[in-house]
Amino acid sequence: MSYLALTDADREEMLATAGVASIDELFRDIPEGVRFRRELDLEPALSEPELVAHLTELAERNVDTGRELSFLGAGVYDHYVPAVVDAVLARGEFLTAYTPYQPEMSQGVLQAIFEYQTAICELTGMDVSNASGYDGTTVAADACFVAKHVTGREKVVLCETVNPQVRQVVKTYAPGFGLEVVEVAHRGGVTDPGDLRDAVADAACVIFQQPNFFGCLEPAPDLAAVANDVEALPVAHVDLVSLGVLEAPGAYGAAIAVGEGQSAGNFQSYGGPHYGFLAARSDFIRRMPGRIVGETTDLSGERGYVLTLQTREQHIRREKATSNITTNQTLLALAGLVHLAWLGPQGLREQGETCMALGEYAKERLGLPLVFPDQTTFKEFAVRVGRSAKDVIRDARARGVHPGYALGRDYGGLDDALLVAVTEKRTPADIDRLAEVLGEVAG
Amino acid sequence: MSYLALTDADREEMLATAGVASIDELFRDIPEGVRFRRELDLEPALSEPELVAHLTELAERNVDTGRELSFLGAGVYDHYVPAVVDAVLARGEFLTAYTPYQPEMSQGVLQAIFEYQTAICELTGMDVSNASGYDGTTVAADACFVAKHVTGREKVVLCETVNPQVRQVVKTYAPGFGLEVVEVAHRGGVTDPGDLRDAVADAACVIFQQPNFFGCLEPAPDLAAVANDVEALPVAHVDLVSLGVLEAPGAYGAAIAVGEGQSAGNFQSYGGPHYGFLAARSDFIRRMPGRIVGETTDLSGERGYVLTLQTREQHIRREKATSNITTNQTLLALAGLVHLAWLGPQGLREQGETCMALGEYAKERLGLPLVFPDQTTFKEFAVRVGRSAKDVIRDARARGVHPGYALGRDYGGLDDALLVAVTEKRTPADIDRLAEVLGEVAG
Amino acid sequence: MRLIFEKSSPGRRAGSLPAYDLPRAEVPEELRRQRPPRLPEVAEPDLVRHFTALADRNFGVDTGFYPLGSCTMKHNPRVNERVVNLPGFRDLHPLQEEEASQGALELMWRLEEILAEVCGLDAVSLQPAAGSQGELTGLMLMRAYFADRGEADERRVVITADTAHGTNPASVAMSGFELQKVATDDRGNLDLDDLRAKVDGRTAGLMLTNPSTLGLFDEHIEEVSKIFHDAGALLYYDGANLNAVCGISRPGDMGFDIVHINLHKTFSQPHGGGGPGGGPIVVRDILEPFLPVPAVVRDGDGLRLDYDRPKTIGKVRGYCGPFGVFVRSYAFIRAYGPALREMSEVAVLNANYLLARLRGAYDLPFDRLCMHEFVLSARNLKREHGITALDVAKRLMDFGFHPPTIYFPLIVPEALMIEPTETEAKETLDAFVEAMLAIADEAAADPQVLKEAPHHRPVRRLDEVKAAKRAVVKYGFEAHPDLAHAPAEGQAVEFQKGA
Amino acid sequence: MRLIFEKSSPGRRAGSLPAYDLPRAEVPEELRRQRPPRLPEVAEPDLVRHFTALADRNFGVDTGFYPLGSCTMKHNPRVNERVVNLPGFRDLHPLQEEEASQGALELMWRLEEILAEVCGLDAVSLQPAAGSQGELTGLMLMRAYFADRGEADERRVVITADTAHGTNPASVAMSGFELQKVATDDRGNLDLDDLRAKVDGRTAGLMLTNPSTLGLFDEHIEEVSKIFHDAGALLYYDGANLNAVCGISRPGDMGFDIVHINLHKTFSQPHGGGGPGGGPIVVRDILEPFLPVPAVVRDGDGLRLDYDRPKTIGKVRGYCGPFGVFVRSYAFIRAYGPALREMSEVAVLNANYLLARLRGAYDLPFDRLCMHEFVLSARNLKREHGITALDVAKRLMDFGFHPPTIYFPLIVPEALMIEPTETEAKETLDAFVEAMLAIADEAAADPQVLKEAPHHRPVRRLDEVKAAKRAVVKYGFEAHPDLAHAPAEGQAVEFQKGA
Ligand SMILES: Cc1ncc(COP(=O)(O)O)c(C=O)c1O
Ligand SMILES: Cc1ncc(COP(=O)(O)O)c(C=O)c1O
User: Fold this and answer.
1) What value does the mean pLDDT take over residues A212-217?
2) Mean pLDDT of the region A405-431
3) How much is the average pLDDT of D407-427?
4) Ligand 2 site: residues with CB under 6 angstroms?
5) A264/A241 Cα distance (integer angstroms)
């Protein structure tokens, strides 16, 4: 199968117009020594039905969250994605458009991004949001780059309670930025402001996560204060789903808010594509990485939208740009906007409350010792399962239930700790089933 | 969950504007005696996620053709439906539009129907097609109604080899039309022109199916000739998928061509919604039932499309109308058009050839006695399984294979006959698997 | 815009299917296709663009307000599209064994229970594919019922209102009954005297839409049903307007014996530019024996399809009917639950709000509170400025609205039949009112702009007379006629558009 | 058009979620949300209409021809959307156990094998989310490679062409290297003398796009790679233009050691109005040890994720990268098989056909056969009529085409960078040519119509200067500024648009 439209007659005529005798001659500028003379060693072409059959066969070798009762979260969540999101994203005018370089051709996506930026600013309590970053990990690295330029400092403080995926990416980017990374261990599941104070001296920024990787609520306002005291930028890594019930980072002094947008509008899809969001106080608007849409007017004074503040960007500022990003995750961010508009403020609050209530119900029903008994949690919490969490997961899966994430994968001394996530899609009956299964397989 | 947009404030203001004190007062013209005073006894409202969970649970109680290897056809077929069909039908401008009564608002669907009519006429060799009927059964009844008015006669001759579903519907409609139905038995799987001649005297029409219900090729030209000899209208019931390799009814003298469109562009969906097509020679254009789109021009002389010849229809002609139909199956017919355009003439021919080749391969691999050994078949054929076909189906399904349709459900003396359908989606390997299973379960 | 056939080029193709290397099977010469069908030959990119462009030239509820009277153009929830495409529904064969289609049978069973409750009746057949077919089926039931009682030869007449939708008389004719019409009184109810004069031993039944196509609830419905039942006749309820009365008044309680429901109206099956639809019929127990087969019946703790109904009229459509339509409507109803009543309340509130705001500018033939829709008349504009209902409809297009149904019901001259449905926001209704008032003003100030409307659509006003005269109903390839240079015949003709 | 926030009304909502009756869990006061976020409050019908209307104000490949140079806007096959939405892919958690995600691992494994073959290199990481991130990752690999050899302090310089895309220098800066630029010679190749003068022991490597952003294949590529390799440096291939050479010439064979591929260009991942994309990197064996973790490795007859890579640079994105993108591109490639070569051949044929037909009317700075794209200059129109590349671009909109990339590459004044891709029909190319020629004529005949273009879009030419000056980047609710009454600042500015 191919997607080509030229007939043989077309090809003949076009070659003639181009003034060459053959297709091969079109490539005459390619030196003989680097011409590829054999056929590509790829499997034969598939017809559309064969293609679908082949990919269906591959897909069925995966166990998705429709095929087992899953409590796996740890950064990506099985929240409900409304059907309107599918409908909007299927519109070819959105799906098959490029970055809106020519605004008069792209008012639809430009206005949608402007609306997205507004929603993100509302949720985070910030003044300016970009049009999205790659995911929840890279936006954290972007924040470090901003902080470095704003403060001129060369150290990043990372709370150990930040998602390990995020920390690893920050550590990978840091050397190139000329940044050193310092981590602050947690106490009883959260970051102790005192510990942070000891580490924060001449840091460019401090990155903490709310709710943190263990699902625990950090003393975010205190952490932000500690950072602000020494003029390090407090960077809050937050979950959009929590922002109907948890305070907006802007309200407790964070300078930058970032996060993984998946839980608002994106399917899990094995980790991507998703979107990362990045919003900041207006002071940093000219240091923002990535696309930003701004409002303006046209020749007749009518309102319209364009990509703006482009002098920050690589295509103009080149090596002096605030980032090298061009392709971002607009379509996924659009999904986020549709999802948030579908929920509305009331829906978002209810969703957060439901996740929390289910979490408390689960703690009680499981009756297993909590790893961090003193903390308030949101959507997710850690329990001790009495033996290797890996083994418990294996045995629970054999019973059709995926009980969660083995914290031992990232944290020493937690081999028997299981991180359990409950979204609004898990019913109390589902949780009862989890309790039953863990009752059988936990040590 | 509800889909209402009025806020409480809106309601208050609107009631005031309408000059009533309460919602209840809006219904004051409804006599007290017929007011419904209790709450409807319906299950409580479901949120969207609950709704999806509930319907998913119901759907999973069905065994669809993705979950067992199926050779079931008998009028509805598991042909491949291209992804472009989904994409086009998902466009809200098509999906959520009503019948195009106001042509300036509906050029998209009107042009699409005009293109559909053209494709149907090309395939059937007819001059005029309507915009679709309900399905492959009702269009046969429609054809009888046309024939009655055209010939003034009161008898319909039905070949017994026509799909039993179609025959049953024709028999149900006939009395209201003042038509008597006569059936002609088959000989060795097809209709004998001689037998037909004996039955055809002063018939309004003769309905035969090509390929017929057994998958056998009827001597269609001869049957049409027999009908034409006595000025009864030959009505051919055809499968669009066959018309790349089988002759167009118009080419062998049929007056009307009808059929079930499902195999071109529609999923099986437990029998519907699908579309029936009806096309005829131009002589009958003013007797056609249903919508017809015609070309015209606008005030500036530009080409455009409108519903035309409406004086045939119920909203103008009332009890003298050629039919009572208004809602038809436009969206499914649109799917048919997209499917046919996706295939093109070459693709359609290849599809027909593939189905036939697979059929011959299956006959040989199964090695079971053919019920009608002397006939050429298309896509479908009948074999004897040595014991009750119903039992064979049960036992084969227990092995993950649905082997086909039990002809005993409709035809006496064929309790041990199995009707096996092979579409282009069934590979030779699938057929080998069928042979293996039938080898185990056939008598 | 060019037809897809005009974008076609020999040898191009979009689709591809598996090719297995098997010996080719021959078709006997006399049955073999001689000339290949001239289907379009386009690559997938152009196929997608063609239909995207066509969609852009079409207006749906997703595009904007669509107050097409009697058609109940409400929002179509997207979740219904998600569930109808579940493989367990979408890829299920209609002849699949019963034990392997329990989910489908369960859904149909539950939908039947719901429809019976909403109608206040006893038994349901989901089989009819649309309202019109429901009518035909209902009339077949009447015939079977009287035949069963040995009254087949007497009960020959079916009565309809002069406001009836065209499908009613057409269905009467197609089912072999004689038609008799009854007048409407000055409050928009059936004229009882006329009725009494016409109902007798030859009467098989009444077909009535209530609320009527005027959007008015018949204030004497109890008396009407008594008249027919006393005469031993039956009452048929045309359910096209059921959206007005869910949970508020039930056809069965009104005295109707047979009801059809347009699932694509009240229960939100998207109409797809003409269809699909669904026309289930709901009946009183005395009519159940005659319903089409198969019936979904409980059997132990499972369900099965029962074909053994000796008195059945037979089948009116293949298999169990348009199943996908059932899935969407079932999902729609389950989303509301008992709040279906609120759905109807808001539909009626929206209609009365519009009526209150428009009555000053357009004639109101029957001055009552309306139900879910109402009928205005543009006769005042016609009298004073020569502006017809058609002109008003065409001009509305320029304001971004789909026109209402016009020239129906027939007893109202220059009728504008407006049905907002319950899913519209007040802001939308207000914008529509502004447009209607602006048009009434234009009729006086600048009638020509109305006569030549629309001005902002992909095409200008289309010549329907020419279309009917020339009857070009398919592309002619090499021989396609050039209508642009054929003389204009006149413009859009003034007859019913909508409903 | 109003913003969705301007359509919002308190208490309205579209969504509904399950509510279980459970005791409510309290958030500590100091962490609790004080002011609810002002998210839109709309019902589903208006939500659907809003985004339908926005889509109608947007142009995609589905809408028409989109020759945005360097962006490879080819058709996005619909079957890819069908397969990416299979539950087994869509609902798979990225931390699902390996034995329960074998299908996903298999797909990634196969895609890696394919990309290695197409590039003529040895190892692949699919992790980078876009080309730019691929660049950054590739440069991190360079640094790690030299650090591993103890040359970290010497190898500080990365060389790019003066035609390079802005992401190249930006990536160099972000990865801590020093940037040096090399000139382009008069045939559009790298200037070898300039190059020789700049390459030395401090050189870490070259970043090059080949064919270049001029759409020209570097005729001295073998010599270029020799110069770098002899100096112990590495070569990085910016794969944005890979669509020109699949199966025709392989980066690895040209001498490149690291390649990024833009899956959303060559391999048809729809770009969604800005993203998502995919930027896998393909490397020579010497660089494999440094690739990001995890790596997909065979293990018995299964596959697993290997994190145990002592020399890895770490991770540049979460999990395994944008998996959905992999599914679409894998499906796209499997549809072609070895005919990927034909894909590139036709892409190059289409470009040369356009070039041949347009060269008469616009300046052609480098007169050679082009590859998949070419760069014209409107400087002749500017000189003679004051018409800029921007004016030409805006006017093309009125003909229904998306403009090409303009003002890039920077070395070409008034650049028009045109990339048709392989999926366009000749009829479309011809229509585009007619439009370009008509515009060249208008430049002389009626320049004002160009200066004020576009005339047929939802908005007229937008004031980008005002947008940047006012920096209104979110809706202000009660306090939203009214720009309509702010003074105009000027019009769209003449800098790179596209690529
Ligand atoms: C009053 C009335 N009766 C019957 C019908 C016919 O219904 P359907 O279009 O579903 O066949 C309609 C719809 O047009 C109608 O408005
Ligand atoms: C030549 C070139 N290099 C790099 C890039 C950056 O790729 P991406 O947008 O995938 O980050 C692009 C695309 O804009 C490009 O055209």
Assistant:
1) 98
2) 98
3) 97
4) A 326-327; D 70, 130-132, 165, 167, 209, 213, 238, 240, 262, 277, 279, 499
5) 7
Express as a percent the part of chain D with pLDDT over 70.
100
Q: How distant, in Å, are the alpha carbons of B25, C141, C362, D295 from that of C365?
A: 21, 36, 10, 77
Closest ligand 2 atom number to CA of residue D133 = 11
Q: What is the pTM of this model?
A: 0.98
**Judging by DSSP bridges, how do beta strands A205-210 and A233-238 pair with one another?**
parallel
What does the alpha-carbon distance between residue D263 and residue D242 come to, in Å, rounded to a whole number?
Answer: 10
Q: In what order do the strands lie in the sheet with B180-184?
A: B128-129, B276-280, B256-260, B233-238, B205-210, B155-159, B180-184
Q: How far is the CA of A273 from the centre of ligand 2 (A)?
A: 18
Q: Could you tell me if residue D494 is left (phi over 0), alpha (psi between -120 and 50 degrees) or otherwise beta? A: beta
Per-residue pLDDT, D488: 87
Give me chain A's average pLDDT, please.
97
Burial, B83: exposed, middle or buried (Cβ in 10 Å; 0-12, 13-18, 19+)? buried
For C102-137, give the DSSP string: HHHHHHHHHHHHHHHHHHT-SEEE---SSHHHHHHH
**Inter-chain contact D43–B87, Cβ cutoff 8 Å?**
no
Residue A276 near residue A76, CB atoms below 8 Å: no
Q: What is the mean pLDDT of chain C?
A: 97
Q: Quick one: what percent of chain A has pLDDT higher than 70?
A: 100
Reduced DSSP (H G I as helix, E B as strand, rest coil) percent helix, strand, coil of chain D, to 5: 40, 10, 45
Nearest CB neighbour to B23, from listed C276, C345, C488 = C345
Describe the crossing of helices A48-59 and D323-336 by its angle, rounded to 10 degrees.
140
pLDDT tens profile C438-484: 999 999 999 999 999 999 999 999 999 999 999 999 999 999 999 98
pLDDT tens-digit series, residues D346-395: 999 999 999 999 999 999 999 999 999 999 999 999 999 999 999 999 99
Instruction: Give chain A's radius of gyration (CA, Å).
Output: 25
CA end-to-end distance (rounded Å), chain D: 28
Residue C487: the pLDDT is 87
Single-letter amino acid, residue C263: L
* Segment A24-65, tens digit of pLDDT: 999 999 999 999 999 999 999 999 999 999 999 999 999 999
The answer to whether the CB atoms of B87 and A87 lie below 8 A apart is no
Which ligand has an atom closest to residue B328 CA? 1
Tokens of D176: 């801590």
Contact yes or no for B100/C464 (Cβ under 8 A): no
Within 13 A of D105's CA, how many CA atoms are on the CB side? 23
Interface test with B, best of D13, D46, D54, D78 (most B CBs within 10 A): D78
Tally B–D CB contacts below 8 A. Answer: 42
Residue A243 to residue A258: CA distance in whole angstroms? 13
Beta carbons within 8 Å of B211's beta carbon, 6+ residues apart: B217, B218, B239, B242, B246, B377, B378, B379, B380
pLDDT tens string B201-235: 999 999 999 999 999 999 999 999 999 999 999 99
Residues of A whose CB is below 8 A from C48: 92
Shortest-distance ligand to the CA of residue D262:
2
Q: Does residue C132 have its Cβ closer than 6 Å to ligand 1?
A: yes
CA distance D56 to B89: 17
Taking the C-alpha atoms of residue B107 and residue B90, their distance in angstroms, rounded to an integer, is 18
Low-confidence ranges of chain B (pLDDT < 50): none
Q: pLDDT tens digits, residue range C137-191? A: 999 999 999 999 999 999 999 999 999 999 999 999 999 999 999 999 999 999 9
Strands (E), C371-479: 374-377, 405-406, 415-418
